[in-house]
Amino acid sequence: MKKTIIISAIALCFSIVSVNATPVNLKTNSYEAAPYFKVNSFCVSIAKGDIDTVKKIIIEKRRCQ
């Protein structure tokens, strides 16, 4: 009976040690993704406040329809 208890205690100690083990942190390359999108000239003109260009683009779009 004593042997069984001692062996169980030793096995428990080994299992606790393996549970508390910390993983090795591998250095990874981190890449930062930058969004890429193309804004059309109409939106750029509105953002800049260029009213003359906005009017020209609207007039051109109406002619094409």
Describe this structure in words.
This protein has 3 helices and no strands. The chain is mostly helical and 65 residues long. The mean pLDDT is 78. It has helices at residues 2-19, 41-48, 51-64. The longest helix has 18 residues, at 2-19. The termini are far apart. The chain has a domain at 36-65. Helices cover 62% and strands 0% of the residues. It is rod-shaped.
Number of strands: 0
> Globular, elongated, flat, extended or rod-shaped: what is the shape?
rod-shaped
The total count of helices amounts to 3
Low-pLDDT residue spans = none
Mean model confidence by pLDDT: 78
Largest sheet: none
List the secondary-structure elements in sequence, H or E.
Answer: HHH
Helicity level, as a percent range?
A: 55-70%
- Give the C-alpha Rg: 35 Å
- DSSP strand (E) fraction? under 5%
Secondary structural class: mainly alpha
CA distance, first residue to last residue: 96 Å
Which descriptors would you attach to this protein?
65 residues, mainly alpha, 3 helices
Q: What is the topology?
A:
Blueprint: H1 2-19, H2 41-48, H3 51-64
Summarize the structure.
It contains three helices and no strands. The protein has helices at residues 2-19, 41-48, 51-64.
